[in-house]
Fold this sequence. Notes:
- There is one protein chain.
- The protein is α+β, with helices and mostly antiparallel strands and about 100 residues long.
- The protein has one domain (about 5-80).
- The protein has helices at about 40, 65-80; strands spanning about 5-10, 20, 50, 60.
- It has a four-stranded antiparallel β-sheet with strand order 3-2-1-4.
- A hairpin with a 6-residue loop joins strand 1 and strand 2.
- The longest helix has 15 residues, at about 65-80.
- The chain starts with a strand and ends in a 16-residue tail after the last helix.
- Residues about 1-5, about 10-40, about 45-60, about 60-65 and about 80-95 have low confidence and may be disordered.
Amino acid sequence: MGKFQVYAIKTTADGAHVTGRLIAGTFTRGKSVHSAHRADEMGVKHGEPVELDLLIDGIVIYSNEIDEIQEGLTALIRLRGHWPAQISQGWILEGG
């Protein structure tokens, strides 16, 4: 526990898919947020581009634990120097 996956996300022109790049940390795989796929099913590796079925720009954090989500956001802010403009509570869903 205490590990997380953070992706920076950008939509394509048609808005149907996005490409993300793993940008922080060494990660334990977990449930996805706003994604049709799980990270372990995609075989995601650090720094590797991935394609996700998302309809919005912003940040995806793979985690079942709110503490891990907070750690992920903190790491992201350290890397980027600011809070991601597109993130909202609605993006943070319980894993279940």
